[in-house]
Specification:
This protein has strands at 3-7, 10-12, 18-25, 32-38, 45-50, 57-59, 67-72, 77-82, 91-98, 112-113, 117-121. By secondary structure, it is mostly beta strands. Strands 2, 4, 5, 6, 9, 10 and 11 form a seven-stranded mixed sheet that branches. Strands 1-3-8-7 form a four-stranded antiparallel sheet, with no helix packed on it. Strand 4 (32-38) and strand 5 (45-50) form a beta hairpin. The protein starts with a strand and ends with a strand.
């Protein structure tokens, strides 16, 4: 059974940093991971993704230069380092997994989802 568990969310001041983790279990093949977020009253949107085996990454424009996605295959964990956080980054952040090669940039690319972790950026 595939499970994804996010952690690392919390309350941070504008300009601060957080590192989200996505622990993956139950996958026997290579998998790609995406990070999405959903703010109150808004649609869930893509943030960043990393491919299954070659480590290619993608970032939406609104996080480029501030967020970094990485993976530790030995730990089956993917990270999202978030720096220079802004109030508009406030949302529930979800990681998602797909058993396919390449980058998955949209929700429909993914087969499995975590429960989410709250990130609040406020002074």
């Amino acid at each position: 059974q595939v499970q994804l568990v996010e952690s690392g969310g919390g309350l941070v001041q504008p300009g601060g940093s957080l590192r989200l983790s996505c622990a993956v279990s139950g996958f026997t093949l290579n998998y790609g991971i995406g990070w999405f977020r959903q703010a109150p009253g808004k649609e869930r949107e893509g943030v960043s993704c990393i491919s299954s085996s070659d480590g290619y990454t993608y970032y939406e424009d609104f996080v480029k230069g501030r967020f970094t996605i990485s993976r530790d295959n030995a730990k089956n964990t993917v990270y999202l380092q978030m720096n220079s956080l802004k109030p508009e980054d406030t949302a529930v952040y979800y990681c998602a997994a797909r058993n396919a090669y390449g980058l998955g940039k949209v929700r429909s690319d993914y087969h499995y989802w975590g429960q989410g972790t709250q990130v609040t950026v406020s002074s």
